[in-house]
Write a structure and sequence with these properties.
It comes from Anaerotignum faecicola. It catalyses: UDP-N-acetyl-alpha-D-muramate + L-alanine + ATP = UDP-N-acetyl-alpha-D-muramoyl-L-alanine + ADP + phosphate + H(+). One of its GO terms (molecular function) is UDP-N-acetylmuramate-L-alanine ligase activity. InterPro entries: Mur-like_cat_sf (IPR036565), Mur_ligase_C (IPR004101), Mur_ligase_C_dom_sf (IPR036615), Mur_ligase_cen (IPR013221), Mur_ligase_N (IPR000713), MurCDEF_pg_biosynth (IPR050061), UDP-N-AcMur_Ala_ligase_MurC (IPR005758). With about 450 residues, the chain is an alpha/beta fold. The protein has three domains: about 90 residues, Rossmann fold (3-Layer(aba) Sandwich); about 200 residues, Mur-like, catalytic domain (UDP-N-acetylmuramoyl-L-alanine:D-glutamate ligase), CATH 3.40.1190; about 140 residues, Alpha-Beta Complex (Protein-Tyrosine Phosphatase, Chain A), CATH 3.90.190.20. The protein has 16 helices and 21 strands. The strands form three sheets. It has a ten-stranded mixed sheet, sandwiched between helices. The chain starts with 8 loop residues before the first strand and ends with a helix.
């Protein structure tokens, strides 16, 4: 394990990323000398500069000076990066972002890492709200903006630490949390894992990293959950909505405005009654997981209740963007078939007339690997519009397209169409959305801009 010393110079390649910037800020708070590089200036880089962190714009070998003690990089940085190569040439130690997060986490006694194919940001935020309500002064690093702290990061000065644990590239195998949460295990990131069996093996390996005195909190609904928990030394507790779970939500009431009320039972005994200001059974499930994790680190039922009551969602997670001419606009980060189903199911519980869903597929590989699953994911939508695929890190090889996906969805009997670029979609919505409708923009790219343009135009 690396011990971060005051005065140690740590350089971040890609310091402006939401996760990298948070780690840079944590180390700066510990007294390290932090600097880094990003492609261009952003609100994040300006914030870091205001903290006294030096940032270069543009990747250049000369940015890696002789006084640098450690270089941190993300999975997006390849060995041909000039700064990466300069660090190697100078024999400066290199560390990827996931390992750094794991090293930092190891310094906190009561660490909670939230893993799963879906729901990580929401559940990490719920755990954060509970720990804040309990007055534990936690350090928080989350993959979205949590309104309570107006950031993705909070630096605390206590043994409590909560973070997302991403499975992509097996990043979460660098962590050794005191409490690990597994929300769900499904096919995704198949450009890396190749198949579901590989994904399940990685999640089991993540669970094995939890110490004997710690706990795994795992969704009872995961297929063959016993396979993921076999051979573990730690305490294992299940959660869910069905009978048999150690932590179970019962007596659920869905309010017309989308809010939820429910009871939580722990091993058959009433733990407490809870109110949740975000819609959907998936969020109730996330809340029960959060309660279980927080309880294991000593949080009482009253603080769990207070924290969840204060939770209003995170940025881009069923986030109400506004209303125009009686049309409510909601944005959601969902980019996997299961996430889309959950978002649409949540929308169904909110009173409205017609559900319009604008979906921007994220990456060609995911669209191709999960093509049929995407085709069946829009059951609860009335009108479906498909935007162009958001390429992210990939290039178009011509084997998949947004129009093909629209045609596949239409074969299920849904009204689905590929309209074109964002301006064309906005124009189409303005002509066809009526008062009382709900407009849901969905995807991990920049599809939120369509809803914002609809509200502003």
């Amino acid at each position: 394990m690396t011990t971060f010393q005051k005065g140690q110079h740590i350089y971040f390649i890609g310091i402006g990323g939401i996760s990298m910037s948070g780690l840079a800020e944590i180390l700066a708070d510990k007294g390290c000398i932090v600097s880094g590089t990003d492609i261009k200036e952003s609100p994040v880089t300006k914030h870091l500069q205001n903290l006294g962190i030096h940032i270069n714009f543009g990747h250049k070998a000369e940015n890696i000076t002789d006084d640098v003690d450690l270089v941190v990089y993300t999975a997006a940085i390849h060995p041909d990066n000039p700064e990466y190569q300069a660090a190697q040439a100078k024999h400066i130690p290199l560390m990827d972002r996931a390992r750094l997060l794991g090293e930092i986490m190891a310094e906190y006694e009561d660490s909670i890492a939230v893993a799963g194919t879906h729901g990580k940001t929401t559940t990490t935020s719920m755990v954060s709200e509970i720990l804040l309500a309990a007055g534990t002064d936690p350090t928080i690093t989350v993959g979205g903006i949590l309104p309570t702290i107006s950031s993705n990061l909070k630096i605390g000065h206590s043994p409590y630490f909560v973070a997302e644990a991403c499975e992509y590239f097996d990043s979460f195998l660098q962590f050794k949390p005191f409490v690990g949460v597994i929300l769900n295990v499904e096919s995704d990131h198949l450009d890396y894992f190749k198949n579901l069996a590989n994904i399940r093996r990685s999640f089991h390996a993540f669970a094995e990293r939890i110490p004997a005195k710690g706990a795994l909190v795992i969704n009872q609904a995961i297929e063959n959950v016993a396979e993921l928990t076999q051979g573990l030394d730690c305490t294992v507790e299940t959660f869910g909505l069905a009978d048999g779970a150690d932590w179970q939500a019962k007596n659920i009431i869905h309010e017309p405005d989308g809010k939820n009320t429910f009871d939580v039972y722990y091993k058959g005994e009433l733990f407490g009654n809870f109110h949740l200001n975000v819609p959907g059974d998936h969020n109730i499930t996330n809340a029960v997981a959060s309660i279980a994790a927080a309880h294991f680190v000593g949080v009482c039922p009253a603080d769990c209740q207070k924290g969840l009551l204060h939770f209003t969602g995170t940025e881009r997670r069923f986030q109400k963007k506004g209303e125009k001419n009686g049309v409510v606009v909601i944005d959601d980060y969902a980019h996997h078939p299961t996430e889309i189903k959950a978002a649409l199911a949540a929308a169904k519980k909110v009173q409205h007339r017609t559900t319009w869903c604008v979906f921007q597929p994220h990456t060609y590989s995911r669209t191709k690997f999960l093509f049929d699953a995407f085709g069946e994911a829009f059951t609860d939508a009335d009108e479906v519009i498909i935007a162009d695929i958001y390429a992210a890190r990939e290039s178009d090889d011509g084997t998949i397209s947004a129009a093909m996906l629209a045609d596949r969805i239409a074969k299920t009997g849904k009204s689905a169409r590929y309209v074109g670029d964002f301006d064309a979609i906005r124009s189409y919505l303005e002509k066809n959305c009526k008062a009382g409708d709900l407009l849901l923009t969905v995807g991990a790219g920049d599809v939120f801009k369509i809803g914002e343009a609809f509200l502003e135009n």
